[in-house]
Structures are given as structure tokens and as C-alpha cells.
Amino acid sequence: MRLTPLLTTHAVVQRHQTIPVWGWTDHPRTRVRASLGGARAEGISGDDARFLLRLPALPAGGPHTLVVESCDGGERLEAPDLLVGEVWLASGQSNMQWTMAASAYAAEIAAAKPDQIRMIAIANRGWWHCAGAVRG
User: Fold this and answer.
1) Is 34 within 8 Å of 79 (Cβ atoms)?
2) 25-54 pLDDT, tens per residue?
3) Which among 79, 92, 86 has a CA at the least distance from the CA of 118?
């Protein structure tokens, strides 16, 4: 069994919104359940072994451990230290790679709670990699 890389240790999921949990089981048509902070969901992986469960919305909090397992006990994953809070997506030009440390925000950096700030960087892709992009 494996989960999307977005749901690993130290991840953040959006508060007050249904929480999608998706991945792949080792075998098709496997009954799967997930739990996070008291929220639970159950379903069955498809013929291609993919699954998508939707956990009920949770308020901000944590850390929690996401547990995803097959109902027969044959497969089990845990992703500890997940927070429920605000998820922000940032995208744009090269200035999106500018770090806070390189900025003039020393007071904000000092006041931050770094254990509650999580970041994932998705590989850069040029516009020509986008499906349906028109090349001229």
C-alpha cells in the first residue's frame, strides 16, 4: 500500500473541509479504512488498486496520526505528525522561490512557530508540459 506523497509525515490538511485520502493498495478490490483525529472513512480500491476516501472535516489542531489500512489487516500505513490547519498554494514566476530568510522580515520570522509551518515543493514544470498546451 502507498499514499500520495502529499499525505506523508509532517503534512498539513485543510481545516473545515472534507479531507481526501488517496493512494494504491497492493491488490485490487481491497477494503480500505482511514482515520485521522477521530474522523473515519472506509471504501474499496478499484480494479486498478487505486482508492479515494473522504474523511469528514476537522477543526484546526494536531498533531495527529493518519492511519490507512486494509480491513483484513494485511496492509497498514501511518503518517504521524499531521496538522489540520490552513493550506496555501503558491505558484508563479521565479520570485516564488524567494525565501523568507532572504527578505526583510526578521520580526515575522522570529515570531513564527516553525513547528507549525510545513512546506512541500513540487517539481518545476514548464508550460510545454501542461496537457493541452498550445505550442506556437
Assistant:
1) no
2) 999 999 999 999 999 999 999 999 999 999
3) 86
What amino acid occupies position 96?
M
Measuring CA to CA, how many Å separate 46 from each of 12, 38, 103? 26, 26, 47
Do 28 and 1 meet the contact criterion of CB atoms below 8 Å apart?
Answer: no
Give yes or no for a contact between 8 and 83, defined as CB atoms under 8 angstroms apart. no
Could you tell me which of 52, 51, 53, 56 has the C-alpha nearest to residue 38? 56
Q: Which residue has the cell 483484513?
A: 72
Domains of the chain: 2-85 (2.60.40.10), 94-124 (no CATH)
How do residues 67-77 score in pLDDT, each as one tens digit? Answer: 999 999 999 99
Residues 6 or more apart in contact with residue 11 via CB below 8 angstroms: 66, 79, 82, 83, 118, 120
